[in-house]
Design a protein that fits this description.
109 residues; alpha+beta; Arc Repressor Mutant, subunit A; 3 strands
Length: 109
């Protein structure tokens, strides 16, 4: 009987990054923030055709995954890319994709 492979911590971290990046709006927010040192909530909301509550929820998901940081400057909140965790995400994705060997063509008819 073959033993099941355990899920490694790196896979859990990579999965959290992938989940956070798994929505087009979140990718848009990440691209928007990547072009600036930092940005206020209102600027992010102005770029998106969605409600403030929805923007807030997407920012929360990205922040929980560690991809962005938020800093309160009352009454505003300023966001930026978390460069350390962004590099970590890039490294984990690169390691993951390079670890998958080239698969044979799967022709199912």
């Amino acid at each position: 009987m073959q033993k099941k492979t355990s899920i490694h911590q790196n896979q859990e971290i990579l999965s959290a990054f992938a989940k956070a990046m798994g929505h087009p709006t979140r990718l848009t927010i990440l691209q928007f923030l990547s072009q600036r040192d930092n940005c206020y909530f209102g600027n992010i909301h102005d770029e998106l055709p969605i409600s403030k509550a929805t923007v807030s929820q997407h920012l929360k998901e990205l922040k929980n995954a560690g991809l962005i940081q938020g800093e309160i400057e009352a009454p505003k909140v300023k966001y930026c890319i978390n460069r350390k965790n962004w590099q970590l995400a890039k490294d984990y994705f690169e390691e993951f994709f390079s670890s998958i060997k080239e698969a044979p063509d799967c022709s199912i008819e």
